[in-house]
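One-letter codes give the sequence; each number marks local geometry. A record appears below:


***
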Amino acid sequence: MPPNSKSKRSTATHLSYENEEVIQPSEDNIMKGYRNSLILYVNGSKVPESLCAKARPDMTLLTFLREVLGLTGSKLGCAEGGCGACTVMISKSADDHFSANACLMPVLAADMCHVTTVEGVGSVGGKNNKLHPIQERMVELHGSQCGYCTPGIIVAIYALFASGNNSIEKVEEHLDGNLCRCTGYRPIWDSVKSLCSDDIEDIKGPCGESCKTCPERHECTNPCNNKSIEREIQSNSTQDKINSMSKMTPELHAQPSEMFPGELKLLMEKEKTQQKDSASMAIITPTSSWYKPTTIDQMVSLLNKYPDAKIVVGNTEVGIETKFKHAYFPRYISASSVPSLTSIESTSDNIIIGACTPLSKIQHFCENVVEQEQSGAGVRVEYAIMHMLRWFASTQIRNVASLSGNLVTGSPISDMNPMLAALGAHVELISSSEGETIKKRTIAVKDFFLSYRKVDLNPGEFVSSIVVPRIQNKTYEYVLPFKQARRREDDISIVTSGMRVKLNVSTLTITEAAFSFGGMAPKTVMASKTAEFIVGKQWSRETFDEARKVLAEELKLPNIVPGGQAEYRRTLASSFLHKFYLATTIQIQKDLVEFNGGMVERSTLLFASIVDQIRTNEISGAVSFVTSKKPSIVGTQTHPAPQITQGIEDKAEQSFPQKIPEAKKASGETGKAVTHASGPLHCTGEAVYTDDIPPPDGMLHSSLILSDRPTGKIISIEKGKALEMEGVIGVYTYEDLKQLGGSNELGPILHDEEVFAESEVRHVGMVLGIVVAESIELAHKAARAVQVIYDENYNLKPIITIKDAIEANSFFDSFRHTLESTNSVDEELLSKDDTVIVEGEFSVGGQEHFYLECNSTLAIPQEGNRGLEIFTSSQAAHKTQVFCASATNTPMNQVVVRIKRMGGGFGGKETRSVFAASAAAVAAKLSKRPVKITLDRHIDMSTTGGRHSFLAKYRASVNEKDGTLGALDVQLFNNGGASLDLSAPVMDRALFHVDGVYKWKAFRAIGVPCKTNQPPHTAFRGFGGPQGIAIVETILDHLAFSSNIPVDTLRRNNMYKEGEYTPFGVEIAPKTWNVPTAWDKLAVSAKYHERKENIDKFNSQHKYKKRGIALLPTKFGIAFTSKFMNQGGALVHLYTDGTILVSHGGTEMGQGLHTKVCQIAAQAFGVSLSRVFIQESATDKVANAQPTAASMSTDLYGMATLDACRQILKRIQPYIEKFGKELNDETIAKIAFAAHFDRIDLSAHGFFIVPGGRCGYDWNLEKPSDYEGPDNAYRGHAFNYFTQGVACSEVEIDTLTGDFRTIRTDVMVDVGSSINPAIDIGQIEGAFIQGMGWCTTEEMVWGNESDHVWINPKGRLHTQGPGTYKIPGFNDTPEQFNVELMSDVHNPFAVHSSKAIGEPPFFLGCSVYFAIKEAVKASRESSQELSSKEELFFKMNMPATSEKIRMLCGDPIAADGILANYEKDENLSEEQKRQKVVEFQPNGCY
């Protein structure tokens, strides 16, 4: 609740080192009775006073837990409360438990509380050595992959159960504050639902035992057990798990209350009964102070003495100000311990809400009122507040944030402020005079907001309560909340509104009206002119149609308004008003009956005049997600029984076999759906990531010095101010690196990047240097103090977008590549009878990796400062070694890089982790001390690049008689950024996939990376393949529209046939092409055609809700196209106790690579999985390893491991024969010991290369003059094989807002003979949701001169964290999510006939995008605004954000929003205006 004064706010606008005020402890001697020490309990134990003394007013609870207490289970994911990785449970009593974001909560705000972290829930290696059922279930049902988000999710669930929210419905309602980038959420949903308390059917097996309580459930082989390995096909649904798995016992539900410290309980009771002042606390440090008053008098006294003190409750806004805006506040007042400020009560006339009452308490209070009353006008205010709060931020935020904090912050896009203003609420303020006499003042909420983030609050004044008028029962008064955001849950609104009207029902005249909006001005605004217009008029469609025109005029936004989306925001405001009219009209009908005892004659004129206003097909327009129940996510996973099939392991150079080997039932570990090897550690927080490593002695923290402009010439870098700060050890730049004799060059292909910029800046966020200091806060402060002097006469215009680059002819031209068929594209595109030719452009957006663990490196100098040990979160150990060695002038054999695990990678840590690691290595070498660097989320996002945006310019043809595809002629451009990085091979992979799964008669694809002033873009799951496939599927859509051939027919009938060749010369080989079969099977199992008919019927009956369905195929090539990269090594040790240690060149980032490799090793030795272990990936174990990328790692390292195992097995064969002729858990130790005793080597290095004839593609090879083979095959064999699949998705959109939901998704993928079906299904689900996010909610927004002129400087990434960048959340998962692994499919070209799976399913998420496009098409077809076929065709650039969905629906309200700024333009004819509507495209950033 930060006081926002009308007077100048001096204390919050400067950097802290510029404005720190030294607090003298003596000045606060008058604070008698205030306790001066923190009392805190964590995980059942009291924190010692010596440690509590380290708590500072500006220290977060997360920092205290991790750095002071060493509890690293809680993670720093974003520092803004947006990802939930830091979630802890706060207990204020044995019965009051709630989750909170430790990254925002000040540690001093936890005074007199018990904090439970994931370590306190259960542990693998702790004193209890026992997992909690939540942790067990998450492991068992594969709910973790990388594991970085898992501790926060575990605690969020734990806190929900502890607070009594343990039903499925309650969990679905409140699990909204955590993000996961790996799993796709479905297995987490299954895990928590299976533990919920709901009464469900008790399934019993043939044995008569209850399946869910049976102690032998895991080993059971009865047919009813879904895990039976005897079944040919195994299928498991959400309902199966709910019905068959055990619930939490009452004892475990009581664990949080029983763990609440008795000592703290006694202390609380003592303070309460003796009314001691020791509950109040004052912590005074040299730079800031923290006060915790417990009475209003104390509050008044403090503010009288310190009128500029910052009042905090949840710290959800102040935490952002201090972290990201570097605000400094010398004094904080924590107001949430004043009882009268945290109360809520209801009278017959008002709801009185204490200023510091948590939003969740208000929400639940309103819920209880609504539930008790059931219906009626008397609960409409509570109903509106309850529903708006359901979607307000997250459960963790609502648990601590207050209503007054929202008010006083004055955010122009607050959800609740417009709601309160429309309800006629007022704010009660308290202050004191000089004599400390309490003064009170009241002001209406609608008058409280003065300008942007400035409110009518005087210094020394604070909010004491908010009073909200209630609506009386049986009153014709109506109020509704509205909001639309980029994502439904935990997202800031684009536009939000509260609307209220009151009627004289006898005449249907509107007597009162209040319409308030957020997101339409620099502050919350009342649409007073619209309200004035509507009052006195009769309730009718005509009245509201006219009111929308008044509203459009009243809330005009310039097209370059800050925040952008001007047309959309204008349209939303009008759409909300229309939805309000529809919903209220329907409610008036109900009220006329209910309020009159059901006696109103439906034939009366009054009733008829209301009923006739709404047509049946308009009713759905009254429905809003805001007031709808949150979805229930369910799914089914189906896969073949475990089997082992011969793959490449016993073959040399491969050609396609005439006969596929038969599968055999698995007798070992391969093929089993075992859980992730690190699952238990993930779920207890004991899995160690780079940032969790205990700091070595003398460790320094570091912060990068970054450029603040897209182009520039550096004159000098002034370090003096930073070096003057006590505790700053060094500021290192290019000049210092030169002193080491190191190389400043970086780059995976071209060395066109620098460790530290030498003289020129080429993008915002370019690294100029690094600061090292004794603390991370000091390092950041010092980095901000470094002054970079630029040549102000250097004014090179930045190139930001692809179109900028094309205009400036700025390309990486030496990497321009062409794939062209022998058949002439130009001839095929000549106009002929029966040939339909289309031409167009299509843009595909970029994507942020949003791995939950940001880049982190710990660099430790070795003996004599000669070598370095590097712990890092990277997919590329060897590449990190190479550049850390070269930058520090150290031989590679003295640089060891170690990677235990990563918290996600997705390609983002293949090359873009290296610059940070190299900077840390240089700093460590220069300072001769260990240096750690962990990038903050906003720094990571703004410097590391992401998925490449693409622009396609295409021409294509189809024979409209037989539906045969003709020619495809496409030019591809991607936005490479300022340096090449991997942009060239990303473009190459797009070229290799832009054919889709289709045979084109003639084909030409040209691709070139664009050189721009964005950070270098890089690898991302799919590596250009998804962009290429999205482009070709869009082209097929265009061809289908223009030829009147159903797109499904076009797709199915033009799929490759066995024996045909791709444009790059790879054969679609017999017995390996499964896309057509998968398509046909999924069309049947998903009931595609039947549902399509039902959707057509639905759309004909609903004007404002439209549905769409799409069935899409994919093929994804597996191999590095650079031949040398298709190699992998492994080191295997067999120990004399019969255990096996494997090291290999791959890295674990959540994809289950280590687990699969362990399964392969266990299978080879014939032992159980528990005997095999992988410690880490390290360059001193396996040298010169390729990056873990291209989905190739199991293929490479599984085979390399198997090779090593077989070497050892060959050596110990005589001992196997001696001790029983078979290796197993019983014999392996004896055999190993005997062999060792006979001096047999029990270690082996394995190595594998993809056969030379099956990999490698050289673009530079010239076509031999006598070549007669398949097109372009002379250049090489691009891929070893294809992973294939099909997906079907159904969506529903709200045509008035652009909101959408995914009703159902079915996915079928050919993964060969799966090594681990559970891991493969997890990869499919995670890739699908990530792909769905890419094409819907995830939009990277860059400042540029054409689309986003409101962002400065140009080239700055606006979407730098979860607050602005929206990956899918828990409730964005398809409501029914079914995944099936194809049966009877094999792959002779990989280990055990398996297939790579990490990247291939990613594109299938685009089935959601194409389904949305179908729904938008249905809306346009029903629109009276668009009549001709040319007008019905539309382009929807990717991603399909809520803005694009809404604005492309082609209705009159959208047209008004588009034309609002042109209405008075006399130079535009009506036809030109119409054309603007037809051609309108929302701004993107490509």
User: Anything to note?
Assistant: Residues 22 and 287 are 5 Å apart (CA to CA). The chain has 48 helices and 50 strands.
